[in-house]
Amino acid sequence: MLKLQFQVLLEKLLYSCPKLDKVYILVREKKGVNIDQRIRSMIDQPFFSRLRTERPQAFEKIVPIMGDIAEPRLGIKAEDEEILIKKVSIVFHVAATVNFKEKLDVAVNINVAGTERMLDLTRRMENIKCFVYVSTAYSNPNRKVIEEVMYPEDVSLEKIRSLLKSGITEKQVKKLLEGRPNTYSLTKALAEHVVAKSHVSVPSIIVRPSIVSSTKKEPIIGWVDNWFGATSLITSVMKGLIRVILTQPGNILDLIPVDCVSNLIIVAASKMESSKDVAVYNCSTSAENPLTFESLSKLILSYSYKHKVYDFPMPFVLFTRFKWSFSLLMLILETIPAYIADIVLLLRGKKTRYLKIQAKLSFVRSVLEYFTSRSWIIRASKTRALANSLSPSDKKIFPCDPKDIIWEEYIRTYCQGIRQFLLK
Fold it and tell me: Which residues cross the membrane (predicted)?
């Protein structure tokens, strides 16, 4: 969802912040496509249609800067660096590797060292007002209740770098990850401390989104452009491909619409006040507006039945917290029906697909199991206070109070967005 997060933030800045002079975007060349072509390809998407129709001149504010957060000095040319130092007043650091299976050295280089490089540049900016670091609400998943505070380091960055330098083993990596699901969570926590320690010289804010999901309203209702996170789960339940989930029905799935996150990022930057410690905002719903797996499943199935979008008839969902029963139910309710469906397709002379889909879903489940089989309370009282401090007009322009989400409406538009933009 990181690409979507960036696009929503960019579109919102250009659409709703007319006083902005320029928006400088760090872009790397990819597979022979230069940075101007990459930006052009992005803004030509339907996602930016509102901006093209109503405020086409806003695109002229975009200034692509060739660079890469994984490279020394961000891979930025000296002349471009000079422009950034003189012109930029707010930095939004959204870039990261979100691969849950990423090797530790790669994750440290991109998520931690990349943040250090960005802070080094920000520190030299002549008019800097705010550095906004977009982290994750799961940077401290070993806590059942997650507050809007900085938590003590479980392991020091120096120790990790020392182990990486001497040649770290898989056993050592597992020990470092104790209580955490992946290198992404660990390196985002490390990066938070890098930001907090730099707060004295670089005024900073940390925003922690939970599970980022489709747009609630802007710029297109229900927009989603990838299968990451909750989208694959919701789609599979809707189509009758997933009928058993390894969780308890009362566990909370902490979804947060991507446009709510972008609005909070902008509001937090605009409302930043001088403080001794770095401000932390959890952008989450579990404490303020919880959605359980049971409630979510009912909403998805209601949509599925109403619009008849299922591949397998009579979709339903069972919950279990035991792995043995989960494996047995998955075999009976999902794998065997998929096998039978593929035989039917084969007899009709059509290409088989359902066992392949089940194999992909098995991988997705293994990646998400840590999050679906547990439940957290992620408090967002500071976020709510910030949202409620806005004027009535700004509340309409930058809605970011998680309490305002009406799940029945949102899940319906999420399902509709999946059908319209992914299953087209």
Answer: 324-347
Range of lowest pLDDT (165-179, 238-252, 331-345, 393-407): 165-179
Read off the tokens for 201: 């010289």
Q: Residue 213: which H helix or E strand, with range?
A: strand 211-213
Q: Which of 31-35, 234-238, 361-365 has the highest mean pLDDT?
A: 234-238
Question: Could you tell me the CA-to-CA distances from 326 to 230, 233, 389 in Å, in that order?
Answer: 19, 16, 46
pLDDT higher than threshold 80 for residue 70: yes
SS3 call for 375: coil
* Signed CA dihedral, 4, 6, 9, 12: sign only: negative
pLDDT band at residue 228 using 50, 70 and 90 as cut-offs:
confident
Domains of the chain by residue range? 2-223+255-286+378-405
The confidence band for 178, taking pLDDT boundaries of 50, 70 and 90, is confident
CB 284 within 8 A of CB 384: no
Look at the block and give the residue holding tokens 């500071």.
Answer: 382
Question: Residue 181 and residue 174: Cα distance in Å, rounded?
Answer: 10
Quick check: 407 pLDDT over 90? yes
% of the chain residues with pLDDT over 90: 82
Of residues 319, 306, 266, the one with CA closest to residue 132: 266
Q: Could you give the dihedral angle defined by the CA atoms of residues 282, 283, 287 and 293, in that order, rounded to the nearest 10 degrees?
A: -130
Please check whether residue 373 is in contact with residue 247, taking contact to mean a CB–CB distance below 8 angstroms.
yes
How far, in Å, CA of 407 to CA of 296, rounded? 8
8 Å CB contact between 84 and 76: yes
pLDDT band at 31 (very low <50, low <70, confident <90, very high): confident
Residues 6+ apart with CB under 8 A from 153: 189, 190, 193
The angle, 0 to 180 degrees and rounded to 10, between the axes of the packed helices 336-347 and 354-372 is 160
DSSP structure class, residue 287:
T
The domain 2-223+255-286+378-405 having CATH identifier 3.40.50.150: the answer here is no
Residue type (1 letter), 103: K
The rounded mean pLDDT for the chain is 93
What DSSP letter does each residue of 158-205 carry, written as one string?
HHHHHHHHH---HHHHHHHTTT-SSHHHHHHHHHHHHHHHHTTTS-EE
What does the alpha-carbon distance between residue 334 and residue 360 come to, in Å, rounded to a whole number? 13
pTM strictly above 0.70:
yes
> What distance in Å separates the CA atoms of residue 416 and residue 424, rounded to the nearest whole number?
11
